Amino acid sequence: MSLGEYLLFLKGKGFKFQNDAIHFIYFGKQYANAPDAVAEAAVEITLKVQKAFDGSFYISLLETFKQHKVGTKKEAYACIERFGLLEKI
User: Fold this and answer.
1) pLDDT category of residue 75 using cuts at 50, 70 and 90
2) Residues 79, 89: Cα–Cα separation, whole Å
């Protein structure tokens, strides 16, 4: 699933993103040179942990994933598990 398709999926589930948040999500993806799956995981984890979209948390996740060479959604969840974030979900 592409990042755009994922955002449409979330919209269908009732999540409403402001236009600037959508642009920021794509900016973060490009900034971190993240594959769609990793950007999707970062959005998903941000929403689960913060209960709303938080741009700084999202960017922090993407930077962490880049630093740890995360390339898949599964690896993203394994990475945050090491940092104890899964306990907040």
Assistant:
1) very high
2) 14
Place of tokens 């979209």: 53
Domain extent listing, the chain: 3-88
Residue type, 25: I
pTM over cut 0.90: yes
Alpha carbon 39 to chain centroid, angstroms: 5
Q: Is the pLDDT of residue 85 over 90?
A: no
Beta-carbon contacts of 10 under 8 Å, excluding residues fewer than 6 positions away, are 17, 43, 47
Question: Which whole number is the average pLDDT over 59-81?
Answer: 96
Q: Which one, of 38, 49, 46, lies nearest residue 74 by Cα?
A: 38
Which distant-in-sequence residues (6+ apart) come within 8 Å of 65 by Cβ? Answer: 32, 34, 38, 41, 42, 75, 76, 79
Please state, in angstroms and rounded to a whole number, the distance separating the CA atoms of residues 33 and 70. Answer: 11
